[in-house]
Amino acid sequence: MTRPSPAAALNGVQVGHICDRCNRGIRTGDKAVAYGTYYERGGWTLRRVWCDECADRAISNETDGADEVLVEAVYWQGKLVSVTAIARSRPSN
Ligand SMILES: [Zn+2]
């Protein structure tokens, strides 16, 4: 089965507005970066959200066997919009 594109799947998804690294609030219109992983049951699921300043730009600690993605987006009233993938780590098998 082909997996949906993470950018498409995460566009419009609801997120918290607190940066997971500096605990500052992300405001509507701010850029944000989010990390997500793919689950067979739940599809693409966001695990972390960072403000533009704290954001990771690459997946540094790859999880074995996991399909992971970093997306850049605009935070807009509780949701991520204009989502684009900036890094991806797919299972090697
Ligand atoms: Zn931050």
TrEMBL record:
<protein>
    <recommendedName>
        <fullName>DUF8112 domain-containing protein</fullName>
    </recommendedName>
</protein>
<feature type="domain" description="DUF8112">
    <location>
        <begin position="17"/>
        <end position="73"/>
    </location>
</feature>
<dbReference type="Pfam" id="PF26417">
    <property type="entry name" value="DUF8112"/>
</dbReference>
<dbReference type="InterPro" id="IPR058425">
    <property type="entry name" value="DUF8112"/>
</dbReference>
